[in-house]
Amino acid sequence: MNVPDFSFESRPMRVVFRPGASTAAPAEEAARLGLRRLLVVSGRQSSVTARAVADSLGSLCAGLHAEARMHVPAEVADLAVEVARAAGADGCVAVGGGSAIGLGKAIALRTHLPLIAVPSTYSGSEMTSVWGVTEHGIKRTGRNPAVLPRSVVYDPELTLTLPVALSMTSGINAVAHAAEALYAPDTSPLVALMAEEGVRAMTSALPLVAADPEAMGPRSRALYGAWLCGSCLGATTMGLHHKLCHVLGGTFGLPHAETHTVVLPHALAYNAPAVHEAIAVLNRALRTDNAPHALWDLAGRLGAPRSLAQLGLTDDDLTVAAGQTAAEAYPNPRTVTMGGALEVLRAAYAGQSPRIEALT
Ligand code: NAD
């Protein structure tokens, strides 16, 4: 094999992965980082878990703020920054999914307080320096090294309570990061290794999680896959699939993980003719000769949604979403025209099996 030209940046982050770590490792990580007053942030639904983390910090805990909301509304970020300042916090611990970690990042962006992340879904935000804040219905995102968690504590026990439906869609959300990383302009051999292993781990674990949500082995494997897929997301720039999901979530309010699950097979089928090597890697990981179809089939077997209509999108929304997607510049291996974006959206709307067409 020829080694492609590449650049790869190692990020200053420590990862701790072990069952039960969420109530021991945050204090250990705080000590390593020299932090003494930590504000714990979470969403309301994760407040019991976050309380356990806060209690485990003992005198290092400067408070618990359980007000995180999806897509980090600006007023929620403003309040959290105020709370962190008023508490005299010298660091934050974010406990929960991408929404809670997003709030921790919003605090870090404005205050530069170091962040420790304790993820409880597979969305991967903990591995990236990408932040997002939503104001007047528009989500602004950016990259800033200040928001990259300094430590990430993965505790598979935390995911035991993640409902099966969300476990499945969150898991496929993770697979989407690895899939697009394989054809990103800044991909690299290490990213390809992480992506292949991440997809293999996640997709082999999900049916077992669905069959027995409280079995630790599959839960650990899924979270391990999420770490690898999140690492791919953090190391590369995403393309058409993530852009489509950003538009569908931002403009039409569609749910994050479910939207990724529905769109992925179709975005991948659109790009497939232009990315043979990436598809070959995915085929290997999925043990198939048609990765887009295998992912569509997997979603069906896991009882996950497969059509945008099921998520509440209307036929009239498709043209608007396609226009927004085609209008913006982002790297994608195939040019994305209005017609191309509409083709992907129509297939995802109908929930039909993805079709790979030869490039003309
Ligand atoms: P989420 O954080 O919104 O969580 C979804 C729901 O699941 C919430 O109600 C939450 O309370 C609940 N939940 C989370 N963990 C649970 C558990 N273990 N048991 C029971 N319930 C649990 O969803 P998400 O998909 O993790 O994150 C989506 C958000 O993260 C979006 O806003 C997305 O844009 C953002 N995100 C950002 C990045 C990034 O790099 N910046 C990456 C991925 C996602």
Automatic annotation (TrEMBL):
Species for this entry: Streptomyces scabichelini
Any GO molecular function: alcohol dehydrogenase (NAD+) activity
Name assigned to this protein: Maleylacetate reductase
Stored InterPro entries: ADH_Fe/GldA, ADH_Fe_C, Alcohol_dehydrogenase_Fe, MAR
Domain Fe-containing alcohol dehydrogenase-like C-terminal: start-end pairs: 168-349
Residue ranges constituting the Alcohol dehydrogenase iron-type/glycerol dehydrogenase GldA domain according to the UniProt record: 12-156
Family statement drawn from the similarity comment of this UniProt entry: Belongs to the iron-containing alcohol dehydrogenase family.
Pfam families given in the database record: ADH_Fe_C, Fe-ADH
Keywords, alphabetical: NAD, Oxidoreductase
Highest taxon above the source species: Bacteria
PANTHER family: ALCOHOL DEHYDROGENASE, ALCOHOL DEHYDROGENASE 4
Record CDD domains: MAR
